[in-house]
């Protein structure tokens, strides 16, 4: 296996000096009208994740409308129409979790395919196919409960590739000291999408009927996928709209960080899976998703059971925590990169600071929320509890790119496989715990999430790292890149950056 140089013959000390200079030097805009293409990618990814989560959470609102009696008033009087579907809480838990049965299966394959073939097509196809099944959901539901469950499983299969695919994109597009910021801009779409989808879905269900929720979100997502395929490229060097300055900046910072490459290297599975920093990411990702998925799928039901909020009102209130998280995700990414670029803290300390602070604050506010008797106090506490998860994402959420950039999409596939388990089990556990729909039963749900957050903070604080691991450095490079000698198509290949 041949080793490919980046074309530099600098000594190690010279390369260190160059690295410090290059990593902290962003290009000046060549035109006042030019907007860096890496931020265009981030914006499109943001909108893509908005659609991903809108299609994921729509059923959590629709199922309330589908299983609730409806009061109708006309000139002859007031009537109570029975619920369209008489599903028990256990059945509803299975329906809500069915998405994740498919989602978990494509995390590792998605990471492998993204590493080998690039993330653009995988991300676009995943969202496009999900949008088609979302459009067909009312038809499937009309004919069979089993068809509804099957459709959600298929949606999960195709959405499962989205996170690994975007990590593959950022391994080629994101300069090292902009990783947190760019990745968090895109990830914030998950929460802003939730913010928009929850109240919008409640409004659509009230005025146009629950099927309109799926028609609306599916159509918008399909339109986005068309734009994604037209305007986004897998690699900066393939983008005809990128400026020469920006292309040189991206490629020189990445090439500077990884001065030698091997291509077609075998994936170091054993060392990867025995790495404590990898498991720190896995445990943190699982912990964050347990609380997030529990609230994501169950909050509409909780607000109805405990406080009797109607669907439209609860949709507006439930959106607030995810608005806070969307803001904190972007803010956390900006602050994390600021601390690193100014040399105030090492990458390891930055990741631990943001992750553990986020988890501890989430634990505190969830415990307060568990004992809240006032709707206002509850909403404030849940907003803070979910919102501070945005800081945690600037810890574990970008850490894959720190410890093993060539295998970032595969690591995201591994961590998100485990982080999908909460989506499968938390709705089922909640369904069993809240048989009588009392506040005391819901308190237990919050206690479980708080304990998991705390365990995640401790484990990550002890074992996480922000440094590239030896097994990733030895096998460095991008799996699936061409070793034909044409460096122009390689992620860290030579650019004309004189």
TrEMBL record:
Keywords assigned: Cell membrane, Cytoplasmic vesicle, Glycoprotein, Lysosome, Membrane, Symport, Synapse, Transmembrane, Transmembrane helix, Transport
Sequence ranges assigned to domain Major facilitator superfamily (MFS) profile in this UniProt record: 37-468
Organism of derivation: Pediculus humanus subsp. corporis (Body louse)
InterPro entries the record matches: MFS, MFS_dom, MFS_Na/Anion_cotransporter, MFS_trans_sf
GO biological process, one term: monoatomic anion transport
Domain of life where this protein originates: Eukaryota
Subcellular location as annotated: Basolateral cell membrane; Cytoplasmic vesicle, Secretory vesicle membrane; Cytoplasmic vesicle, Secretory vesicle, Synaptic vesicle membrane; Lysosome membrane
GO cellular component: basolateral plasma membrane; lysosomal membrane; synaptic vesicle membrane
Descriptive protein name: Sialin
Membrane-topology descriptor: Multi-pass membrane protein
Record's signal peptide: none
Molecular functions per Gene Ontology: symporter activity
Regions that span the bilayer: 39-65, 94-115, 122-140, 182-201, 213-232, 273-296, 316-336, 352-370, 376-395, 407-425, 445-463
Catalysed reaction equations from the record: 2 nitrate(out) + H(+)(out) = 2 nitrate(in) + H(+)(in); L-glutamate(out) = L-glutamate(in); L-aspartate(out) = L-aspartate(in); N-acetyl-L-aspartyl-L-glutamate(out) = N-acetyl-L-aspartyl-L-glutamate(in)
Function statement: Receptor for CM101, a polysaccharide produced by group B Streptococcus with antipathoangiogenic properties.
Name of the gene this protein is made from: 8229982
């Amino acid at each position: 296996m041949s080793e490919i140089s980046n074309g530099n013959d600098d000594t190690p000390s010279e390369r260190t000096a160059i690295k410090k200079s290059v990593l902290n030097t962003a290009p000046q805009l060549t035109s006042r009208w030019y907007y860096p293409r890496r931020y265009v990618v981030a914006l499109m990814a943001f909108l893509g994740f908005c659609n991903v989560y809108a299609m994921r959470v729509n059923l959590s609102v629709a199922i309330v409308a589908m299983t609730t009696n409806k009061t109708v008033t006309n000139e002859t009087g007031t009537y109570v129409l029975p619920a369209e579907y008489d599903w028990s809480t256990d059945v509803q838990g299975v329906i809500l979790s069915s998405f994740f049965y498919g989602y978990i299966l494509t995390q590792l394959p998605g990471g492998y395919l993204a590493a080998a073939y690039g993330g653009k097509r995988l991300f676009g196809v995943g969202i496009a196919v999900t949008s088609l099944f979302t459009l067909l959901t009312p038809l499937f539901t009309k004919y069979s409960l089993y068809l509804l469950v099957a459709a959600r499983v298929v949606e999960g299969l195709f959405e499962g590739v989205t996170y690994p695919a975007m990590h593959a994109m950022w391994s080629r597009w994101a300069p090292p000291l902009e990783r947190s910021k760019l990745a968090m801009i895109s990830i914030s779409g998950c929460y802003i999408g939730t913010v928009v989808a929850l109240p919008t879905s409640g409004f659509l269900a009230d005025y146009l009927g629950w099927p309109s929720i799926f028609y609306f979100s599916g159509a918008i997502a399909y339109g986005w996928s068309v734009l994604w395929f037209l305007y986004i490229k897998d690699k900066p060097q393939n983008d005809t709209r990128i400026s020469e300055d920006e292309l040189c900046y991206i490629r020189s910072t990445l090439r500077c960080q990884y001065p030698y490459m091997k291509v077609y290297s075998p994936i170091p599975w054993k060392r990867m899976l025995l790495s404590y920093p990898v498991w720190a990411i896995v445990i943190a990702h699982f912990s964050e998703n347990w609380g997030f998925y529990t609230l994501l799928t169950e909050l509409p039901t909780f607000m109805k059971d405990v406080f009797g909020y109607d669907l439209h009102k609860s949709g507006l209130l439930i959106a607030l925590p995810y608005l806070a998280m969307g803001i904190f995700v972007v803010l956390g990414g900006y602050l994390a990169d600021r601390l690193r670029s100014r040399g105030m803290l090492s990458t390891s300390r930055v990741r631990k600071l943001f992750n553990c602070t986020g988890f501890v604050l989430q634990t505190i506010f969830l415990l307060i929320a568990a004992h809240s008797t006032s709707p206002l106090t509850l909403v404030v506490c849940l907003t803070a509890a979910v919102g501070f998860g945005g800081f945690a994402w600037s810890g574990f959420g970008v850490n894959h790119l720190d410890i093993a950039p060539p295998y970032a999409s595969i690591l995201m596939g591994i961590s998100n496989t485990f982080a999908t388990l909460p989506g499968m089990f938390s709705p089922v556990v909640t369904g069993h715990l809240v048989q009588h729909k009392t506040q005391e039963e819901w308190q237990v749900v919050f206690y479980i999430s708080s304990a998991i957050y705390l365990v995640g903070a401790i484990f990550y604080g002890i074992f996480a790292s922000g440094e590239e691991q030896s097994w990733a450095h030895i096998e460095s490079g991008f799996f699936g890149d061409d070793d034909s000698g044409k460096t122009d198509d390689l992620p860290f290949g030579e650019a004309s950056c004189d």
